[in-house]
């Protein structure tokens, strides 16, 4: 060992001393080791920039997740009575298991209805929407969309009312109460024949598409089969409308579906009438609408927006 050794010196320093005291030729003992240069900011700037960007992305992601998490907590506090929530929070704290997920699970296990109860509720919902189709005062487009949503849920829970021949019959009866009765008779005849011969029949989703197509065709041609499922008029003389100059004139569609009246009230319409009324005629229509005899029509238009 070198005579200049002192306790506490690093191995690298000892090696350097040894190299300095080594009298062998440099070619034999090898190149002299060099100490690393002191690091500068420029040497690590690129690495720092990369890590800063990575931090920014992770921070944004964390903030988003944290915000969503807090929103759910806020929803729990808003919708659950404190007297109901408190015991579960205390229990989870005592078990050192307090988390949003465990709170939701505890509430679900306690209050979630059984599958049988849910199925029965869905069944009642489906029967109710069919009933609305028969007597409810609802636009057919709105009704068919609501019906389809309830149908999808009923199919998920395998409700008997949405399966087989009876399901098709119930649907046709619902839509034909304010629709053309002959359409129901025609479709039922086809279903019965196909069923008897073992041939495939339309499923409910296909009848929905047919029904929607008929609605669109009705609106387009203005040869109205019905105006609303609850607002259908069986009167052969039609409806009074401010678009007509006298009370002796009527048209077969409801005033709420009259494009001329809509143009007079809003200044625009989705169905451009032909021929287009003049400004003078539109003004006269608007004035007739304000009369007492059309008070009910005004109420319908206000609700329709």
From TrEMBL:
InterPro entries in the record: Chondroitin_lyas
Protein name from the UniProt record: Uncharacterized protein
Biological source species: Hyaloscypha hepaticicola
């Amino acid at each position: 060992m070198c005579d200049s050794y002192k306790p506490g010196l690093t191995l690298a320093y000892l090696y350097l001393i040894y190299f300095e005291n080594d009298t062998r030729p440099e070619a034999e003992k090898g190149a002299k080791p060099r100490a690393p240069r002191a690091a500068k900011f420029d040497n690590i700037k690129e690495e720092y920039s990369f890590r800063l960007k990575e931090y920014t992305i992770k921070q944004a992601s964390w903030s988003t997740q944290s915000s969503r998490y807090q929103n759910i907590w806020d929803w729990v506090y808003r919708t659950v009575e404190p007297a109901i929530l408190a015991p579960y929070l205390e229990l989870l704290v005592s078990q050192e298991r307090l988390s949003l997920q465990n709170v939701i699970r505890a509430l679900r296990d306690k209050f979630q209805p059984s599958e049988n109860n849910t199925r029965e509720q869905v069944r009642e919902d489906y029967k109710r929407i069919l009933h609305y189709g028969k007597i409810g005062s609802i636009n057919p487009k709105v009704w068919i969309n609501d019906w389809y949503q309830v149908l999808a849920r009923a199919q998920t829970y395998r409700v008997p009312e949405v399966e087989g021949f009876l399901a098709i019959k119930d649907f046709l009866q619902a839509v034909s109460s304010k629709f053309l009765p002959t359409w129901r008779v025609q479709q039922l005849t086809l279903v019965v024949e196909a069923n008897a011969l073992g041939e495939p029949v339309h499923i409910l989703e296909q009848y929905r598409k047919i029904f929607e197509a008929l609605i669109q065709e009705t609106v387009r041609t203005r040869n109205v089969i019905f105006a609303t499922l609850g607002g259908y008029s069986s009167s052969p003389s039609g409806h009074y409308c401010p678009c007509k100059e006298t009370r002796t004139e009527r048209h077969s569609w409801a005033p709420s579906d009259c494009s001329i009246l809509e143009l007079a009230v809003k200044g625009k319409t989705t169905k451009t009438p032909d021929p287009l009324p003049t400004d003078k005629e539109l003004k006269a229509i608007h004035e007739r609408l304000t009369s007492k005899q059309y008070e009910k029509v005004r109420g319908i238009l206000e609700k329709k927006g």
